[in-house]
């Protein structure tokens, strides 16, 4: 197919050039590939999903490219449920679980095959391999994933022709595949809920990836502390770029938009413009996480005195948040209610806010009415894994109303935020924002703080900064 792009410098393709381009290419098929380390774990996850939906066809797409500007696309990030069940990250793919008459399912994966050198698409297509890089062949994908692989270009027709079997598909991921099947929204939503449920408890391989993500994140935070003096001379973006360098060096990228918030920006929960000044005497709230090449992410926050030393008022606020986090972390153990760490941290902060005269007591009444939320804003944590807010579609009774189990990974992240325009607090408090966040995995007898390599108490933070700050 000739390149049809408007305003192309080469609007026509000669037969001679086409013939030249189709010849003289080496055979690059790889026969030495081994199954991915994740493959047996992904197979067990598929088996668990199969048990939940006997006799039904399940379709889990990976997703498509999305246009950022004209012919430029966003970096592709596959649907997390697809990654969890396959270990694959290819665009335009789909996992299908086909029910067997005798029970269980046969799993196969639709993939975009390599471009053929027998036509011009491999070098003139919008997403041609010669432009964007080599893909795996179907045979290569079969070896790596441990799954039979089919040409995704036939997927919509195949699914449309396969009548008579109840089908569920994850909606909002691949419109073409969604249009090819007959389903209903309620049943499809239950499939997506189940995919989140299955990720609540991480297996050993996943926990290893989360440890890698957190360890890289710890190094990224140390990098940032070492660059503080450069940031004072530039902006928050210097520090954002510093952390991003570590994320790209050791992982895939950052797991979410880095929050690099200095001064009053620290009171904005999701400040990601990161274009403000970094001034001596202010606090820097850095909320950032490295995403591994397998797409598991860390999520850590530290609040740092840019000068290296907290002022008395900054330390007062910081200590209150630290004590709240300690109270929350202490509750994390098997059999505890998921809500326990949130309630412990929020009750502590409500007590402090009553003591300081910012909300009306007594503290228990203030907590029951949620009055502390003017200054705490959000919940105190969330599940963590392939998504920074992992398992978001899990059933409520299994997540926020559930009990903690070994293998669950979650954040504990209380904070206090005194907005710059809040007239209910003294002027010297306005513009102070503090959050401390760590990544915990529930163990058989308690918990492990994966991000314990970063200091948390005010004294520890100051000593750490004295050692590394540039």
From TrEMBL:
Reaction catalyzed: Release of any N-terminal amino acid, including proline, that is linked to proline, even from a dipeptide or tripeptide
Span of domain Aminopeptidase P N-terminal: 36-178
CDD domains reported for this sequence: Prolidase
Record key words, sorted: Aminopeptidase, Hydrolase, Manganese, Metal-binding, Protease
Keyword Cell membrane: no
Keyword Translocase belongs to the record: no
Protein name as annotated: Xaa-Pro aminopeptidase
Organism for this UniProt entry: Streptomyces tendae
């Amino acid at each position: 197919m000739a390149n049809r792009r408007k305003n192309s410098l080469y609007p026509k393709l000669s037969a001679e050039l086409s013939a030249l381009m189709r010849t003289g290419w080496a055979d690059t098929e790889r026969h030495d590939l081994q199954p991915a380390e994740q493959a047996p774990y992904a197979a067990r996850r598929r088996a668990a999903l199969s048990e939940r939906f006997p006799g039904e066809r399940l379709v889990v797409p990976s997703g498509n490219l999305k246009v950022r500007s004209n012919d430029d696309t966003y970096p592709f990030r596959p649907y997390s449920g697809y990654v969890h069940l396959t270990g694959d990250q290819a665009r335009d793919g789909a996992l299908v679980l086909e029910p067997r008459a005798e029970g269980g399912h046969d799993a196969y994966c639709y993939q975009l095959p390599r471009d053929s050198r027998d036509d011009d698409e491999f070098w003139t297509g919008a997403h041609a391999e010669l432009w964007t890089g080599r893909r795996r062949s179907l045979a290569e994908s079969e070896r790596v994933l441990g799954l039979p692989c089919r040409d995704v270009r036939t997927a919509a027709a195949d699914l449309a022709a396969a009548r008579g079997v109840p089908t569920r598909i994850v909606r909002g991921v691949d419109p073409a595949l969604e249009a090819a099947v007959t389903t209903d929204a309620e049943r499809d939503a239950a499939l997506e809920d189940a995919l989140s449920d299955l990720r609540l408890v991480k297996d050993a391989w996943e926990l290893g990836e989360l440890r890698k993500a957190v360890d890289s994140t710890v190094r990224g935070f140390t990098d940032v502390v070492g660059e503080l003096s450069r940031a004072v001379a530039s902006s928050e973006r210097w520090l954002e770029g510093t952390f991003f360098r570590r994320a790209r060096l050791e992982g895939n990228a950052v797991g979410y938009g880095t929050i690099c918030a200095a001064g009053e920006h620290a009171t904005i929960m999701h400040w990601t413009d990161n274009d403000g000044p970094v001034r001596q005497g202010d606090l820097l709230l850095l909320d950032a996480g490295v995403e591994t090449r397998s797409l598991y992410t860390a999520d850590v926050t530290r609040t740092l005195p840019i000068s290296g030393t907290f002022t008395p008022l900054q330390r007062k606020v910081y200590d209150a948040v630290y004590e709240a986090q300690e109270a929350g972390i202490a509750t994390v153990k098997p059999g505890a209610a998921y809500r326990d760490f949130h309630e412990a941290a929020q009750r502590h902060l409500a007590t402090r806010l009553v003591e300081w005269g910012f909300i009306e007591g007594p503290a228990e009444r203030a907590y029951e009415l949620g009055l502390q939320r003017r200054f705490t804003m959000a919940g105190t944590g969330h599940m963590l894994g392939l998504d920074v807010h992992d398992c978001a579609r899990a059933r409520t009774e299994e997540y926020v109303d559930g009990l903690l189990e070994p293998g669950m990974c979650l954040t504990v992240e209380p904070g206090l935020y005194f907005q710059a325009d809040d007239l209910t607090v003294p002027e010297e408090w306005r513009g102070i924002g503090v959050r401390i966040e760590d990544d915990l995995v529930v163990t058989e007898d308690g918990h492990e703080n994966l991000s314990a390599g970063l200091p948390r108490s005010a004294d520890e933070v100051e000593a750490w900064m004295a050692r590394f700050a540039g």
